Each structure stands twice: as structure tokens, then as C-alpha cells.
Amino acid sequence: MRLLALDTATEALAVALADGAWGRSINASGGAQASATLLPQLLDLLAGRGLAPADLQGIACGQGPGAFTGLRTAVSVAQGLALGIGCPVWLLDSLLIVAEDARRQASQDEGFTLWVAMDARMDEVYAGHYRRQGGRWQVLRAPALYDLPTLHTLWRAAPPPACAGSAIDAFGERLALGEALLWSRQADRAAALLALAREAVRDQAGVTPDQALPLYLRDKVALTTAERDAQKAGSAA
């Protein structure tokens, strides 16, 4: 399958192209730049293989959780391209991309179990629990939005053996990870994206473009001035 994959759920932009056994992945700056640079990156990737968008047979997209604007950017581009081409969309768990990258860094497969904890800002964490078994990922706890006390309650009951994600550096010692193995930074997000996209196509049917929707775990996207002041006072205390 000629498959295009894209994700802008974090400050990094990840794009990848598979053409049969051939594949190429690219990591670039995302964040506020993603809306302006995503399409040119995708078109350059296709042109480098001598392909046009009409040659694609499927599109894989990180649906979140993640940055509100980033999710809208990736999903809207995936929807528009898939609608114009008439191809299906495979929606990927953006936390699972972090898990796959950590698994590759650890050079592990069977039985590899970890939590992913991503900084969600507003003193909260996007987190999910995953295990690699039988050459496939299993979701032990689906992605959710946590404050630290709630997350720590879960971890006291069952301490995580490993953890990956931006919350490790963002929260530091406030994140009670005990003796867990840690991967705070991703080595090659785009390569992990491509691997998950291939697995998704192998294991499940895609959705129509109108069903390709971002995963929002938070309705409120900003703190009021009073809430920010209270948070600063709490951190200082």
C-alpha cells in the first residue's frame, strides 16, 4: 500500500511515506509552525518518491491526545486529502507513538510494558498504559487526562515498570515514578509513526474521512488569570 502518515500532536512534526516495503520518515519542527509547514513537507515527501497525492491508497493520522491546534491541523489535512483522493484514514493513538519510540530505544518487544505521560499543560498529564505482546500493542489503560494526585493513586496501586514522555522532564521530581525505567525524549517520532501506521493497516479497517475526528480529552484549554496566580502560589509553597 502507498500510505502517507502524519502527526502534529506535539511540538514536533512527524511525517512518513510507505510504498510497499520502501519507507521514509521525517522529523521537523511543529508547534505553531505546523499549520504552515505540514502540507509542503507532505508534498515534498511524495515528490521525492515520484508520487502525487492521487497515487496514495491510504492516510494514517495521529488523532491525539495532544495540543488542541496541532490535532486540528493534522486531522483536517488528513480529512481533506483522503476526501479528495477517495481513500480511507487510519487513526493512531498519539501516546502510542511515544510508546513505540521508547520500545525501539529499549530494543525490546515481547512483554514490553510502560506508561506514557505527556505534559498537558495546566499542571495536568495525558497518560496511557500499554503492553507489547504477540507483535502487537495492547492498551491496558486508554489515554486520559489526569491531575498528579489521581495519577499517583494509580501508580501507588501498581508502580509503573517504565515510563516515556515529556511529563518526565516537565514535572521532574513531582512525578512519582520510583524506580521506573525512563525515556523522557523521543529518538525518532516519525519512524515510530510509520511503524504504527503499517501495523494499523495490517490489523484493522480504516475509516471514511468524515469519521476521522481528533481525540480531545479536555474542553477547557486555558487557565484564567486567577487560576494561574493560584497555581503559581501553590508551586511556590
What is the CATH C level class of the largest domain, in words?
Answer: Alpha Beta
- Strand content range: 25-35%
Q: Determine the CATH superfamily of the largest domain.
A: ATPase, nucleotide binding domain
Shape: globular
GO molecular function, one term: tRNA N(6)-L-threonylcarbamoyladenine synthase activity
EC number: 2.3.1.234
Domain Gcp-like: 35-144
Keywords: Acyltransferase, Transferase
Task: Describe the protein in words.
- By secondary structure, the protein is α/β, with parallel strands linked by helices.
- It folds into 2 domains: 2-94 and 188-211, 2-Layer Sandwich (Nucleotidyltransferase, domain 5); 95-183, Nucleotidyltransferase, domain 5 (2-Layer Sandwich).
- The chain has 7 helices and 10 strands.
- The chain has helices at residues 34-48, 68-85, 94-106, 148-157, 167-171, 189-203, 225-236; strands at residues 2-7, 12-19, 22-29, 58-64, 89-93, 113-119, 124-133, 136-147, 162-164, 181-183.
- The chain has a 5-stranded mixed β-sheet, sandwiched between helices. A 5-stranded mixed β-sheet has the order 8-7-6-9-10.
- Strand 6 and strand 7 (124-133) form a beta hairpin.
- The protein is globular.
- Residues 220-224 have low confidence and may be disordered.
List keywords for this structure.
about 240 residues, alpha/beta, Nucleotidyltransferase, domain 5, five-stranded mixed beta sheet, tRNA N(6)-L-threonylcarbamoyladenine synthase activity, acyltransferase, EC 2.3.1.234, tRNA (Adenosine(37)-N6)-threonylcarbamoyltransferase complex dimerization subunit type 1 TsaB
